[in-house]
Design goal:
By secondary structure, this protein is mainly alpha-helical. It has 23 helices and 7 strands. It has 3 domains: 242 residues, no CATH class; 73 residues; 117 residues, no CATH class. The radius of gyration is 25 Å and the shape is globular.
Length: 538
């Protein structure tokens, strides 16, 4: 590493982590069902069982995912306690590290590379998933690290770089399985198409690198297959759930929109850079076509299966480098235009959520700060010759305030302070749904789901001794079954709270219609938009 960059890289890494850190300790921070129902509870059950090798959830082995992230979370639970900060700190660090190594990779082609790193930090996909204990950002980070060291080996021919690339790739495989290999292969395949330069490293370096990869990545799958014979069946079911098949006619456009959505608010700049690369309008020797091929090859498998946008977070790295190279070579007018577009795209959710929080009297300070920061960003972006790096940093800070202060002020997934004192020592379950989502982390143990199907409901209620959390919509069914079987049922408390339903944007009451929103807007009270929860004691 260039000695002059070591101090600056360390400072960049620390600032990146600070930008992604706010609100990760809050139950009202951004989340989703896969996080609170699977990631959190899996590690809590592993801890309760004293288990390290086999992930468990709902009392059964969760073999769908390799355990590296679970191991890291369990280690931080042991260090800091079973809390939200301990669960999410790893994705913050992975997000910051991905930004740093994107900058380091971009530096090999132009300037300091920090613009590319800032574009990663300010990308909506990274800003969101850095605050959730999920697999996609860690695998994207580790693949970026592996690709960086592979490029270094290609250029310098050092065995140490090949071994570091193999170790990072093995860690990526131990985070989310074989998809990591494809994200690693995408830039290699693109390089064969567009770069066609001979590696400076000798071919025999690949032998110890492959051996190291196998030594790190193979033991756990081999062990779990021997210890859990159903492992292969689980993998087959996982593949079936991906619904592999021929893509529909509109699938490529949807996929393009999804991958560009990860780079918001710089999606238009990425698209413009990709179009320029496609038309050959780039500097001689620039890696634009290689980067574009990396993205296009990387998304190919997702055209043939059911997938979420976050699965493609590993492609934020080439998109950020591609956009940064374009923004530093395009004309002043184009640079000003893209800075303005990015500011507008970042401002839309800031204005919407800030207005929501202020109108419903949920918060004032955070919305004011967010809107003031957006005004400053707008002024900087509209200068005659704006500094795109400064605009990128301000957009990242703007999304940090939105997700770290304004969004948590809405109180999504908040539990009341007057819950029964003996919840910590009694059996607790949620009825038929995984809500309230933060009950497991509040109690520090995995809270299972009570079967809600009609067959045998009364008998199950009669056999249950503990607390039961249910949504108000399910209350009549529970109370009717309890009466029919002479079950003593006590409503201990009721409360209203927004909750995340799978996607983090869906937090208001299911079935809320326009008249409900009109009433809420007129009264400046969002209580009618919140679902009601009931806590029973059986």
């Amino acid at each position: 590493m260039n000695q002059s960059y070591r101090g600056r890289d360390l400072l960049f890494l620390c600032c990146a982590a600070l930008l992604l850190l706010p609100s990760i300790w809050s139950p009202c921070s951004i989340t989703g069902q896969d996080e609170y129902w699977l990631s959190f509870r899996t590690v809590l059950e592993m801890q309760d069982r004293g288990e390290w090798l086999t992930p468990y959830v709902n009392g059964q082995g969760r073999l769908q995912k390799p355990p590296l992230l679970y191991w890291l979370m369990r280690a931080s639970y042991l260090t800091f306690g079973a809390n939200l900060f301990a669960a999410r700190i790893w994705t913050v660090l992975f997000g910051a590290t991905m930004a740093l190594f994107t900058a380091k990779l971009a530096r090999r082609y132009r300037g300091s590379g920090y613009l590319a790193g800032l574009l990663v930090l300010g990308a909506a996909g990274v800003m969101i998933d850095a605050r959730r204990a999920m697999f996609d950002l860690p695998v994207g980070c580790l693949c970026t690290v592996a690709i960086y060291f592979s490029v270094k080996w290609h250029d310098r021919g050092r065995l140490a770089d090949a071994l570091l690339a193999a170790a990072a790739l093995a860690a990526a495989g131990m985070t989310k399985g074989p998809i990591a290999l494809w994200f690693f292969a995408a830039p290699l395949l693109s390089g064969l198409l567009w770069r066609r330069s001979r590696a400076n490293g000798p071919w025999w370096h690949l032998l110890p690198a492959v051996a190291l990869f196998a030594a790190l990545a193979a033991p756990w799958p081999l062990w779990v297959q021997a210890a859990h014979p159903e492992f292969w069946t689980v993998m087959q079911t996982q593949a079936e759930n991906r619904a592999f098949g021929a893509p529909s006619a509109d699938r490529p456009l949807k996929l393009l929109g999804a991958v560009l959505g990860l780079a918001v608010p710089w999606s238009v700049a990425v698209a413009a850079a990709g179009w320029a690369a496609l038309r050959g309008r780039c500097e001689p020797g620039a890696p634009a076509r290689w980067l574009l091929g990396w993205v296009l090859i990387g998304v190919m498998p997702f055209a043939f299966m059911k997938a979420f946008e976050r699965y493609m977070l590993a492609l934020v790295c080439p998109m950020a480098i591609l956009a940064s190279l374009w923004l530093t070579t395009c004309g002043v007018a184009a640079r000003r235009r893209h800075a303005t577009i990015a500011t507008c795209l970042a401002g839309v959710p800031v204005v919407v959520f800030s207005a929501f929080a202020a109108w419903f009297q949920l918060a004032y300070a955070a919305p004011i700060v967010a809107l003031a920061l957006w005004a400053i960003t707008w002024r900087v972006a509209r200068r005659e010759a704006p500094n795109v790096g400064v605009v990128a940093g301000l957009c990242g800070l703007l999304l940090c305030v939105l997700l770290g202060a304004v969004y948590p002020a809405l109180g999504i997934n908040r539990l009341p302070d007057d819950l029964p004192d003996d919840l910590a020592t009694c059996e607790v379950q949620t009825f038929a749904r995984p809500q309230p989502g933060m009950i497991s982390m509040t109690l520090g143990r995995s809270v299972p789901q009570f079967r809600g199907d009609a067959d045998g409901l009364g008998a199950r209620l009669a056999a249950y001794d503990g607390y039961l959390f249910a949504l108000e919509d399910d209350a009549p069914r529970i109370e009717a079954a309890a009466r029919a079987h002479d079950v003593a049922l006590q409503r201990v408390t009721e409360f209203r709270s927004f909750y995340s339903r799978k996607a983090w944007l869906k937090f208001f009451r299911p079935g809320a219609r326009w008249p409900d929103w009109q009433r809420a807007l007129q009264t400046r009270s969002c209580e009618g938009l919140k679902p009601r929860f009931v806590c029973y004691r059986l």
